[in-house]
Write a structure and sequence with these properties.
The complex is a heterodimer of chains A (about 350) and B (about 260). Chain A has helices spanning about 35-50, 60-70, 125-135, 145-150, 220-225, 250-270, 335-360; strands spanning about 5, 15-20, 25, 35, 70-75, 85, 90-95, 100-105, 115, 150-185, 185-210, 235, 245, 280-290, 295-310, 310-320, 325. Helices cover about 25% and strands about 40% of the residues of chain A. In chain B, helix 2 packs parallel to helix 6 and helix 5 runs antiparallel to helix 6. Chain B is built from seven helices and seven strands; from the N terminus they run H-E-H-E-H-E-E-H-H-H-H-E-E-E. Chain B is elongated, with a radius of gyration of 31 Å. In chain B, a hairpin with a 4-residue loop joins strand 3 and strand 4 (about 105-115). With about 260 residues, chain B is of the alpha/beta class. Classes of the chains: A alpha+beta (about 350), B alpha/beta (about 260). Chains A and B meet through strand 10, strand 11, helix 5, helix 6 and strand 17 of A and helix 7 and strand 5 of B.
Chain lengths: ~350, ~260
């Protein structure tokens, strides 16, 4: 049973969406704009309303109970009465009939209420332009990929993240060597001096992110890092208007191992960088003690783009704040082998010609 | 028609004469000069014939001089001057080699000229000297000079072989380099298509204060000394050192004792 929040214009009651360019809520009908703070006053009335119990339709009673068990929920749009299908984790979406953006308050309150939100800075247009740019300059991308490739879906989604502040107390040992050589008579002598090097210190981290959504591929989400946390805002559901949002379904405890592994590696690398003046340095042993602070629960902006080509699906992601765009692309095998043969023949011919020239001199 | 044939015949005869004189200008010069008379006439003839064959084969003069003394000259200067002053050496570059054996001080000297300078490296001349010395010391001149002819034949043959362009080998080396290059380039191009990569570290999230170092110890553990031979004295490879004779011509060669 959930309550939907819809943001309505104070002037014309039109639907409000968050405009990433203006960084304000904008009425799609009369063009009025509101800051999140201004809207708080308007929200008060909405939030003070007694939550309306969700009532299933007859058809839902018959068909949806089983699907609900699988995590699918349906809601009724307060604007047009249309049925909105969402997942258990859905925190913000839009009505498929009238396009009205809605926020599921139940998934954003209590323990599920994020502490911070990083508002979208880049809009759908920027995401589409970034996708086009992503195809450029790739020698092995099939030429027809960008022309035949169909953008199936593009969605701006606030992905739930845990931001971990981590303090490390690290000790690492290294074997380092320095070599010097000299000649005497017919012999060249090389002296190798070996040192036992120890370094210990503290390396602190702020906001190592770990996505708290099972749906999101961890590698994909790590690829669009980093986010600039200086633009974090205290959570206000108004920022979600016009975008999708999910609540977390991966607990912070489950993210700890991933975060600790990254922190440990960076801490040891930081110590390694202080071992200088040697010709070789080999890590021997390291101990990293980690202290966690309670992670912050945040929503970070991500554009997801789904495309398809020759029956294959391709997923791209763009950091909604910095514009960093990632997504693996297919390889044109014919072009690969054509380049391979061209480079092989060019270099083979050049090397053979140069060798012939040198040897004939 | 008859006039044309006469002119053609005359030109051909002149051309043949010029070519013959250029390549074998020293045909009448002896190739074995045995002032000590250590060889029999038959041995001399056989050796003369052998050195002459080599001369034709490689288009350079192979000369052996056996005398008592080099006088006030050093053996090297004597050999150089003998070669130059007597008009040995074929072609404009005066290609050839002379072996001088002087009994007074038991000198064994080689002097090379023209293309023979490069055909015989210093180490190869040293090898020939070491090969011949024991035989000469035992008085086995005929055997030693046959060895000299054999070694000259072998070294020049090897040298000419080594100078031939090895197109197949160059092609194979080019193929290997090309394969490596094509593979590296291909991997780079493929890498352009992969952008979804896990972050293994958290470097982006280190606080501005960065690392606070509490312990910094560098303790010397041990030292190890190794040695390696720079060059081997038994090596027969290497270049040819040269010097200038009294006539101003460049020669290679070396001198020792048997």
């Amino acid at each position: 049973m959930d309550e939907l929040i819809e943001y309505k214009c104070a002037k014309c009651a039109g639907t409000l969406i968050f405009d990433s360019n203006l960084q304000k809520l904008r009425c799609e009908y009369c063009g009025s704009t509101f800051t999140a703070e201004e809207l708080k006053e308007l929200q008060k009335e909405l939030f003070q309303k007694k939550p309306k119990d969700y009532e299933r339709t007859e058809s839902e009673k018959r068909f949806w109970s089983e699907q609900e068990a699988k995590g699918i929920f349906s809601y009724v749009c307060e604007s047009c009465g249309g049925e909105i299908i969402g997942e258990e984790t859905t925190a913000a979406t839009s009505c498929p009939f009238c396009g009205n953006p809605v926020v599921m308050k139940g998934n954003l309150s209590g323990e599920l209420r994020p502490q911070f939100v990083l508002p979208f800075k880049l809009d759908k247009k920027a995401a589409k332009a970034a996708l086009k740019k992503h195809f450029q300059g790739k020698k092995l991308l099939p030429k027809v990929f960008s022309s035949e490739n169909h953008l199936d879906e593009i969605k701006g989604i606030y992905v739930p993240y845990w931001l971990f502040d981590v303090d490390t107390d690290t000790t690492a040992s290294f074997k380092a060597t320095n070599s010097s050589s000299w000649t005497s008579g017919d012999y060249r002598y090389t002296e190798t001096k070996t040192y036992n090097v120890t370094r210990a210190g503290n390396v602190d981290f702020l906001g190592i992110p770990a996505d708290g959504s099972k749906k999101m591929d961890d590698t994909l989400m790590e690829s669009i890092e980093p986010f600039d946390y200086s633009a974090l805002e205290k959570f206000n559901a108004a920022y979600l208007a016009g975008f999708l949002a999910d609540k977390y379904d991966v607990a912070k405890e489950e993210c700890k191992d991933r975060v600790e592994a990254r922190a440990k590696r960076s801490a040891v690398d930081a110590l390694r960088r202080t071992v200088t003046g040697y010709s070789s340095v080999t890590p021997q042993d390291s101990t990293v003690n980690i202290k966690h602070k309670d992670p912050k629960y945040c929503l970070l902006p991500v554009w997801l783009l789904h495309t398809s080509w020759q029956g294959e699906h391709y997923l791209f992601a763009m950091n909604g704040q910095t514009g960093k765009f990632v997504g693996d692309l297919p390889v044109d095998k014919r072009r690969y082998w054509a380049y391979f043969a061209r480079n092989l023949l060019l270099v083979d011919g050049a090397v053979a010609a140069v060798l012939s020239l040198i040897m004939s001199m | 028609m008859k006039k044309y044939l006469i002119v053609l015949f005359t030109v051909a005869a002149l051309f043949s004469a010029i070519m013959f004189s250029a390549s074998a200008a020293n045909e009448n010069l002896p190739l074995i000069i045995d002032e000590e008379d250590v060889l029999t006439d038959e041995q001399e003839l056989k050796l003369e014939s052998r050195l002459s064959e080599l001369g034709e084969k490689y288009n350079m003069d192979f000369v052996v001089l056996i005398n008592t003394s080099t006088g006030e000259k050093t053996p090297t200067a004597f050999a150089d001057d003998y070669f130059d002053d007597n008009g040995y050496g074929r072609n404009d570059t005066r290609d050839g080699i002379i072996l001088l054996l002087s009994s007074e001080k038991k000198d064994i000297t080689t002097s090379t000229s023209g293309s023979a300078i490069n055909s015989f490296s210093d180490s190869e001349l040293e090898y020939i000297e070491q090969l011949l010395s024991p035989q000469i010391a035992r008085g086995e001149y005929y055997s030693a000079l046959n060895s000299f002819a054999d070694e000259c034949d072998k070294h020049i043959s090897d040298y000419l072989e080594s100078q031939k362009p090895k197109y197949f080998l160059y092609g194979v080396i080019g193929l290997c380099v090309g394969l490596l290059f094509a593979w590296i380039k291909g991997s780079k191009y493929k890498g352009e298509l992969v952008s979804v990569v896990a972050k293994g570290n958290a470097d982006d999230y280190i606080t501005p204060a960065g690392l606070t170092l509490a312990v910094k110890e560098d303790v010397f553990a041990f030292s190890d000394v190794s040695k390696a031979l720079i060059s081997s004295s038994s090596s027969r490879s290497g270049g040819s050192s040269t010097h200038v004779s009294s006539s101003g011509r460049t020669h290679g060669g070396r001198s020792g004792h048997y």
